[in-house]
Fold this protein.
Amino acid sequence: MPAVLDVRHLSIAFPRATPVPDLSFTIEEGETLALVGESGSGKSLTALALMRLLPRNARLGAASRILFSGRNIAQLPEQEMRRLRGRDMAMIFQEPMTSLNPVMTVGRQIAEVLELHEGLSCRAARKRAAELLDLVRIPEAHHRLDAYPHQFSGGQRQRVMIAVAIAAHPRLLIADEPTTALDVTIQAQILELLDQLRRDLSMALLLITHDLGVVAQWADRVIALYAGHKVEEARPQLLFGTPAHPYTQGLLAASPRLRADYHYSDGPLIEIPGSIVSAVGEKGCPFAPRCPVARPACRAAMPPLLPQGDGHFVACPVTTLREAPHGHSVGL
Amino acid sequence: MHQFLRLSRVFARTLAHAVPTVIGIVILDFFLLRLAPGDAADVMAGESGAATEETMAALRSRFGLDLPALDQLLAYLSNLAHFSLGYSPRYNMPVSDLILQRLPSSLALMGVSLLLALVVGVALGVIMATQAGRWPDRLLSVLALLFYSVPSFWIGLMLIVLFSVKLGWLPSGGAGSIGTDATGLAALLDQARYMLLPALSLSLFYVAIYARLARAAMLEVRSQDFIRTARAKGLSPAAVTLRHALRNALLPVTTIAGVHLGGLMGGAVVVETVYSWPGLGRLAYEAVMSRDFTVLLGVLLLSSFLVILANVLVDLLQAWLDPRIEAAS
């Protein structure tokens, strides 16, 4: 199956830091790829880079290639990029409360995309906007077209955002922490909606999250990011069953929700000692300063991402060696 | 329908606040004006060169100037209750006629000035915000500071020197060519020629304020999440700015513009004097000089009405611009 998105050697640099030094990954048609990592791991920046919406002072590295349907869009002129945005690739954001224009009706905000990319007339766009609101399961969609965002709940606003994003049938939908700001009950509904739309519209979905529960349930494939480096990649079953990178192991151990028999009052919550800030300026593996099994060699050069079979890739020479002294118990 | 109900609620609330405000203003103005030495009879006697005690007393009793202050106030309020603004001893005609003569040209001047200030100011502010930190922004910032600091009468005089005296393009004063019988478009153009310089001198100060305000508001709005959403839709920078950012940035500007209408009338006194513009501002100035307090009270009363009306309009405008504003209880 051809890749909708093929990212090679993506690097994002600010004047004083390089939060994403060298990242490669692909998303296939109709696939849900999850990018997980803690705050500061570069996952949101990566999403913005794909849309070419990085902050003004951020730069894409010269070697970065973002192949979208086979076409490199990393250096595409802004004017051509605008034709892709909202039409072929769309994005929804973390904060549904502030991501919609407060002084424009939701109907207009959806219709705007249709008029821009599909060339629909004002009236046709309005009709289609009502259908889209209905599609994202806003009750009485026809009557809510002229309502303003403040008249919707948080979950409904995120549904409106989804309607805006899918209006022009994008091939790739990027969802940056789409449920982080929502209630747990609403989270499941929104993710289920996204998943169904992905199947119905055969879009690829790039799901960015720090919630491992979300990943376990909805992703086809997971990439764990640490300080802009891909440290592990696998199907969720593999990643959750046999996590191989010390960072992934730590992440899983620190997620009490994933263990059915566990209640947070049973004992102290587990955390990964240290902070992601320690990765700044690290020449070798960025996780080395926090890693319980790090060796001197880890600090010299970034370990390569090596295949472990069955689509499982890990960037840790210590835990993937058979004779590793600590095995799977690391960090637990 | 919903929109209409919302706006009418805003209107009713403002009206309920307006009536007591106006009555308070009248009473306060009345006593303030009595603090000035002399009255209309003194000025008229002084101008005629000589007057006997008897003529003075006759003048005073004719216009009720000899009554105790409280009686004069009650008489004035009773006049108001009958929708009369009283009678001017100096112009020898009802104050309402006098004011109605001057009102249209004053309203036109203020309206054009405010509109000019808003349109030019907001446009400059948007340009400054999109160019923030670059040389067009710096240049406009310096210009705005200049217009903000220079008094309007001086700008008025300099505009006359440049456009009327040196270049001879525009008339230096008055409100229309005398003796022409132009009608329709020609008459309008003639009036526009006379209005251009006074409106410009009156509005430059406000252009500066609105430009700076709009710049700050645009910069703030531009960093908000929904602007990123608009860009992610694939909209052009112009569409993002005009359709999404501008309307949100207009809110603080309209608030301030409503407050400015009162100040604009104050500025009109000066500018109307410089350009001998036959408006209310000059009438107020002449009324002060001749101690014609009935006229002055009338002008002040009308001004307070105008300010209140402007505030109602601003409230309505804001309710229209921002759907989140509901009529508060």
Remarks:
- Chain B has twelve helices and two strands.
- Chain B has one domain: 2-321.
- The mean pLDDT of chain B is 82.
- Strands of chain B lie at 87-88, 93-94.
